[in-house]
Write a structure and sequence with these properties.
Shape: globular
Strand order of the largest sheet: 3-4-5-6-7
Largest sheet: 5 strands, antiparallel
Number of helices: 2
Helix content: 10-25%
Oligomer: single chain
């Protein structure tokens, strides 16, 4: 659960980066002058990016984003679905209850 309504811009739902990092237990650093960030979980995960840039780096691999991170009311927001996928989760929209469920992705090997 996140405080307040999440902004939707051109069909993309955004979440404050700080709230995302807290929810997924990521260590966060942010350079306000450059509008760049790094979110990490030990040696296993490192995500870097910048406001206005339509790509991020995940463990040193560039990945495109559907929309760039942006500043909303003075706070850096990130596109929710793209970041959720990059930490190993799936985002499932429940139209009946108007809620977003986040679940760990399960990989099936046959």
């Amino acid at each position: 659960t996140f405080p307040g309504a999440l902004p939707v811009v051109e069909g993309t739902t955004y979440i404050p980066l700080k709230e995302f990092a807290k929810a997924f237990e990521l260590t966060l650093s942010y350079d306000n002058s450059k509008k760049t960030f790094e979110a990490s979980r030990g040696e296993a995960l490192k995500i870097t990016g910048a406001a206005g840039t339509p790509e991020i780096e995940v463990n040193n691999t560039k990945r495109p984003l559907p929309s760039p991170p942006r500043i909303v009311a003075g706070v850096l927001h990130i596109p929710l679905a793209a970041f959720v996928q990059n930490v190993g989760y799936a985002a499932l929209w429940n139209a009946e209850s108007s809620t977003l469920q986040l679940r760990p992705r399960i990989i099936t090997v046959r």
